């Protein structure tokens, strides 16, 4: 095991939302590691899952945009099938445009759905998986929670207010978890992408507009994998790295200091 645990120490990895884009590419790259971890991918589209199954990945059809009861049943089934599961990567997300200058156009059902998938679902699954991860960690197996946030969680894209807010919330949660779990064998590795080549932008009909600005997926995954292998706490790539250095660097120390003060109250 490396001095700083990283993705190469994983034995079984679950990627939530891996039928396309970043999730699919990361699942393939993790599966190709010399350590040969079992990689389980989940997604809604069975045809895509069937394609992934042919590449040696384990697959589970599941729509993560659901309620807590269904998520608990999913975790129970998952751990029965994969008791060695030690890593979860949260790649499922949706990005919608909302214009609050025209409140009559706001579809609150879509807004709530985006909030659930991009944030509430992640909090719920982490809560249900942590007892299992703690148990493995106590046995010497490092475990990893890998949220995928965004540079829009640092400086929001005003055209995607819900998406930006969920990524900001997930980034904040990652900082808190990193501090709360620092004395356990459960590690947080936050991936912070810039605009990356992905089907994510299809939901807002933006593919044509953003394609000339995005970071090629292959380049992005290469840089992320290097960070995952090192066990980096924050893996900010491209423009996200610039914004992280400008606005976020040093925040972990502040979080730690305020936590120490809170303990004295």
From TrEMBL:
Keywords on record: Oxidoreductase
Pfam families assigned to the protein according to its UniProt record, in alphabetical order: adh_short
Molecular function (Gene Ontology), one example: oxidoreductase activity
Highest taxon in the source lineage: Eukaryota
InterPro entries listed in its UniProt record: NAD(P)-bd_dom_sf, SDR_fam
Family classification: Belongs to the short-chain dehydrogenases/reductases (SDR) family.
Protein name per UniProt: NAD P-binding protein
Native species: Gloeophyllum trabeum (strain ATCC 11539 / FP-39264 / Madison 617)
């Amino acid at each position: 095991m490396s001095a700083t645990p990283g993705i190469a120490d994983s034995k079984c990895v679950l990627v939530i939302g891996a039928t396309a884009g970043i999730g699919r590419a990361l699942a393939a790259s993790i599966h190709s590691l010399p350590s040969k971890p079992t990689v389980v991918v989940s997604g809604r589209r069975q045809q895509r899952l069937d394609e992934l199954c042919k590449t040696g990945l384990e697959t589970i059809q599941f729509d993560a945009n659901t309620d807590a009861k269904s998520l608990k049943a999913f975790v129970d089934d998952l751990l029965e099938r994969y008791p060695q599961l030690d890593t979860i990567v949260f790649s499922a997300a949706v990005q919608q445009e909302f214009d609050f200058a025209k409140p009559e156009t706001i579809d609150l059902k879509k807004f709530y759905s985006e909030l659930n998938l991009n944030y509430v679902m992640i909090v719920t699954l982490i809560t249900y998986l942590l007892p299992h991860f703690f148990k493995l960690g106590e046995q010497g197996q490092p475990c990893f929670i890998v949220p995928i946030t965004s540079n829009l969680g640092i400086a929001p894209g005003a055209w995607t207010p819900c998406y930006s807010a969920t990524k900001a919330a997930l980034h904040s949660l990652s900082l808190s978890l990193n501090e709360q779990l620092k004395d356990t064998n459960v590690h947080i590795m936050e991936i912070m992408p810039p605009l990356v080549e992905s089907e994510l932008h299809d939901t807002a009909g933006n593919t044509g507009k953003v394609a000339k600005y995005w970071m090629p997926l292959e380049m992005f995954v290469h840089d992320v994998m290097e960070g995952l292998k090192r066990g980096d706490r924050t893996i900010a790539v491209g423009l996200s790295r610039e914004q992280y250095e400008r606005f976020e660097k040093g925040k972990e120390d502040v979080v730690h200091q305020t936590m120490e003060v809170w303990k004295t109250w």
